[in-house]
Amino acid sequence: EVQLVESGGGLVQPGGSLRLSCASSGFTFVSYSISWVRQAPGEGLEWVSTVRRGGQLTYYAASVKGRFSISRDDAKATLSLQLNSLKAEDTAMYYCAKASAVSWADFEYWGQGIRVTVSS
């Protein structure tokens, strides 16, 4: 059974930082691209970032580029997202998502999500 479990969210002031983690199990982590997707209150899903298998290629949404950094630890089957210079508009539920074998943008499995609130 594929499991993705996010952690590290919480309340942070504007300009602050957080580090999200996603622990995975039930599949061969090293073989798949993994992404972060978020959903702000009352809004739809927004893709945030992806790290391809192998870890050499990373992609970011324009809204977070230069502030967020994605990484993966294949030995620990863990995905991370470093969030810096946080803004109120980064407030959202953050989900890690495993890609299918077809495309890195085809999200096959999702975690339960972790809440990030940016507020003073």
Q: How far apart, in Å, are the first and last alpha carbons? A: 40 Å
Overall 3D form: globular
Radius of gyration: 13 Å
Rounded mean pLDDT score: 96
The SSE order reads: EEEEEEEEEEE
Task: Outline the low-pLDDT stretches.
Answer: none
Write down how many β-strands occur, each being a DSSP E stretch of 2 or more residues: 11
Biggest sheet features? 7 strands, mixed
Return the structural class: mainly beta
Characterization of this structure:
The chain is built from no helices and eleven strands. The protein has strands at residues 3-7, 10-12, 18-25, 34-39, 45-51, 58-60, 68-73, 78-83, 92-99, 107-110, 114-118. Strands 2, 4, 5, 6, 9, 10 and 11 form a seven-stranded mixed beta sheet that branches. It has a four-stranded antiparallel beta sheet with strand order 1-3-8-7, with no helix packed on it.
Report a brief summary of the structure.
This protein is 0% helix and 51% strand. With 120 residues, the protein is mainly beta. The mean pLDDT is 96.
Helix and strand layout, with pairings?
Elements: E1 3-7, E2 10-12, E3 18-25, E4 34-39, E5 45-51, E6 58-60, E7 68-73, E8 78-83, E9 92-99, E10 107-110, E11 114-118
Parallel strand pairs: 2-11
Antiparallel strand pairs: 1-3, 3-8, 4-5, 4-9, 5-6, 7-8, 9-10, 9-11
Key features of this structure:
7-stranded mixed β-sheet; mainly beta; 0% helix; 120 residues; globular; single chain; 4-stranded antiparallel β-sheet
